[in-house]
What does this fold into?
Amino acid sequence: DAGVIQSPRHEVTEMGQEVTLRCKPISGHNSLFWYRQTMMRGLELLIYFNNNVPIDDSGMPEDRFSAKMPNASFSTLKIQPSEPRDSAVYFCASKRQENTEAFFGQGTRLTVV
Amino acid sequence: GEDVEQSLFLSVREGDSSVINCTYTDSSSTYLYWYKQEPGAGLQLLTYIFSNMDMKQDQRLTVLLNKKDKHLSLRIADTQTGDSAIYFCARARDTDKLIFGTGTRLQVFP
It folds into this structure.
């Protein structure tokens, strides 16, 4: 298995633009997590899904952020409009719901200028 | 609360032991984890411990859990330069979401 695949690896965008980050979880994993990593705040859980259903989105910072999981093999995190303070590394992780180990993707480094 | 706290930096000499500490506030945490993040990479699970255990050893890694004090530690024996990375402590209730600490940057010097 190729592991959790995120795209793009790097994204540079101008303030106000829409940004879409993509994630393909490991096949057979039914839990998916989106995290944001910054120097100031460390790793923050934004939202997670079980069986494609959002379970906890309390970490989503604002209405500008939205996440979807239309099927078991794909999820998106969208920021509209983007702001410079959204600059961070965004990680997607997946696991089998009943298991303990979560597998992380390589992350998307987002820079909003 | 959901706070998981770690010291930010640790510097050790190659060959020495490293001890990375973590405290958490949620006493209902069932699983406690240590993840490693190398530069430019995602997080990799190193080891985890159930809350009903007080120690787990895996090769050079020893995890100690003091449930009463809600304190977790990771000891790396014979630390190597390849161990230089950021180490994250994380907790979870049952098998749901992981809550991470701020991470400890371990630097190993010759």
About this structure: Chain A has a mean pLDDT of 93.
